[in-house]
Amino acid sequence: MLTSQSKNPDDGGRGGMPAVILSAVVVACLLGMFTAFILHHYFLKPYSDPLHGVNYAQNLAREFATSRWPAGYAIYLWVFLNLAGKYGVFLANLPVLLGVALLTGMLARTCASSTESKLTSLLMGVGTIALLLRFDLFQMVYLTNPYRDPLSYVFMLLSAWLFVAYLRGGGRRLPALCTSGVLLGLAAFIKEPAVFLAAPLFLLGIVYRRVDSRIVFWKSCVLFGIFLFIGLLPSIVQTYASTDQLLMPQYVVRDSQQYGSAIRIPGMGFGHFGETMRYAGYYYWDHAGPFYSAGLLLGILYAIIRKNRFYLGLVIPTAALYALFYGCYRLFGARYFFVVTVFTMPIIAFGLFGTLHLLTQLVLPKRFTPAVLSVSAALLAGWALWGLRPVGPSIGEFKISHARGLTTQIEEFVPAGSTVYCHRHLNEILSWFSSREACDPACHLVPVREFESRPFFVSDEGIRNGINARLNAGSAQYFLQAPYDKSANLGRDLLLRYFDLVPVASFPTDQYGLTALQGDGNLVLYRIQAWTNSETRIELPAASIANPVLCVDAGTHNIAGDTVVELFADGIRIDDSVSDGMNYYPLDGAAPHSLLLKRSDSGPMPGSVFAEFCGPNDSLFLDFGILARHCSDNLLSEAVLSRPVFDLGVRSFVGVAEITLPVLSDGPTLVFGKIMMKSAPHWGEGNVSVSLVDAATEQCLATYSVPRDWAHHEFPFRFASAASRSGHDVIRLVSGSDQTGASGSTVALRDPDLIQIDGIHLMRMGLKESFELDVGTMIDDLFLVSGYHDREKADGTVPVRWSTGHSEMTVYVLVGSRDLQLTVTHWQKYRPENAAPVNPKLSFNGIELTATETPVGGTDGLSAIVAIVPAELVTDTSNRVELLVGTWKPGELSGSADTRDLGVMIDRIRLSPVADR
């Protein structure tokens, strides 16, 4: 299996037939155990790239001239799909990964044999396979799904191995050279960057030509080039059919057209290199550690010492080239860097066995060298085999049995010809495995225009019309809700704007292996039906909040444009014209027990609406976009609502956008918030300048620079409000000119300075003598200055943050005549008994206070750090609070991987007059 014809004067072992047979047995054991490991741990990923791949294969003839991706891998999947079916196709890469491992070992062995003995090079090949299979087990399981990357590496490795064989044969093995060129071209027909391997092969040809005059350099170049072109012909034909040009891959051309930029590979640029390689370094160190890292350095050094031209001219440059290429991606991806891993493992094996070979010969007679190397290889193979044992819980949950079971259950309740609406990735899973139609309700949206083939939309009216049309035609329509419904996409709240949902069945996610993907709980199947109620009554849960704010999502009732909806709380009308979407009502006294919504006409009403209470100082999230779960678009100006969007979870504006903020209490208040924005849909550099203006005073509150990086960014604001409950606060966003990046590049846009608004986290704080902050909520970082870890959940539901040893925050109160009590409530039960004592110290505006700690009655494990703040220390509005506590490290006390320096788990921080305790 791993054989050689070479002879070497450095006879660290003859590498005879027994060694070859034994090596073949070891390799067979490694590959067999790897197969068992995959079959035990595999999981199906029928969405995103894998689903795109199998859909492409299923529709190969139709998509050959329209797809933005080369068809090489789709052809392979088409064959596998017809052999293994719609379930087995998700294991299509198992034989491919076996081939990658075997060919990597063969390449390592062949390259090493030019300077090493038969036995040493043979063991280097075996060691390469062991190192590769053991490196990142999860990545191997992940790549079992239909990703095109591994198949391209099979063709690349075969091409490189044949090219080395041609050189080792003194240029006489012309079929090997020609086949190498064809295979490299076909590798690019699977994944385009594979063609970059031609550069290291060319470099190797130059390096090797200097030591073997039998090789005719230009003849080799011409032959290899001709057959490389033959291998590239399928790619060239498809590219021309798709884009009417030959020079650039179709996805580069199409993405550049779509995003209005010059020809460039999307997502790539040297500006990303440092950050991406930093994450790559973390990844390789986490999986490799000192063992692999030392082997890599030793491999490079040993290749230089031994003057192994195949490692110096091919293997090492190839690993470096692809590290450079994928290092320029804007995000690190282990799947992309797998090619670097593949070409790095031969270097590591070369370094480990080569160094061991040298050391053994320095301290022992040469006759012991074969035994030492063989035992070392056996230990390495045993270590890999131990890690590949198919034992323990499966890495992945969703397996073929789960897919079959879920499909059978859904089809029992959903008649043929019906549609199941559900969010990603449920709709993708069902659309592939089930015979029932499964889709996103957004499939009914009608585009108002297109921007470089990307559809743009204005409203969700198409969803109502599309589903109504199917219902009127007698086709049953269903909605499948998952426990995980944070995504605005396809939530039941979206459909409840226009329809009632009647429960039909539920399916536990753990029974179908979907807990990791969809959350712990039940998938609930609803039948969609038209509204039938003449009014909507809901009973509200008991709430102990004084002067609460009632939040009501009234859905979409104003369909005709003149419909009036009234809202009653405990029989008292509190609004005679409820607007669509979210409505906010500050109430005096206790929370009501029931709500009633009535229309002024005789039209139907929904069976239920969303309503909840929050405190007057609690934070709100104003969610914008057609598919927002609880839509606050009614707070946006008409100029924003009328502008088409392509991202259904946001709203867009050019120039000016006005946003009305709900007023939750009377009297002067401070308004705190964070606006979530991102730049226009295109690739580019630089920033867009956006100013935030208080519409009442025309005062500029802040100026932001929104990067052109496709990412959502949070921008804080604060201003004093004098609006009463009957009035409004209006803020205005004004987008400015483009600030180009260091390269000076600019991007041509159809809508210049287009900004997308995702939502606003909002908190109103009455200017009073009291202050309270719920730590761990989305707005808390506007008050926490330093010394706090990321947000967490205590008891799975309560938002909290761990402090460090020294934490600071800002509180806002009015100056009064009374002393104040400062209370920091924290969860003592999450701090182990053997941790350092808390020994709390509190200071207020730099003055240390006398702090005590007491349990909080009625709640197990909750404790409070309390101090009295003299009235003379308080300043108007802004005050600084510091907390010092003893710290501990979970990793030192419990052996966990958590190395954070933790203080106390803080729940709330409250400042109130002493008389109010």
Overview of the molecule:
There is one protein chain. The termini are far apart. The protein is α+β, with helices and mostly antiparallel strands and 917 residues long. It is 37% helix and 24% strand. Strands 24, 25, 26, 27, 28, 29, 30, 31, 32 and 33 form a ten-stranded antiparallel β-sheet that branches. Strands 2-1-5-7-6 form a five-stranded mixed β-sheet, sandwiched between helices. Strands 15, 16, 18, 21 and 23 form a five-stranded antiparallel β-sheet that branches. The model is unreliable at 1-13, 259-263 and 738-750 (pLDDT under 50). The chain is globular. The longest helix is centred in the N-terminal third of the chain and has 34 residues, at 273-306.
Give helix % range. 25-40%
Unreliable spans are 1-13, 259-263, 738-750
| Biggest beta sheet attributes | 10 strands, antiparallel
Structural class: alpha+beta
Distance between the termini: 81 Å
Question: In what range is the share of β-strand residues?
Answer: 15-25%
What key phrases describe this protein's structure?
single chain; 917 residues; alpha+beta; ten-stranded antiparallel sheet; five-stranded mixed sheet; 23 helices; 37% helix; 24% strand; globular
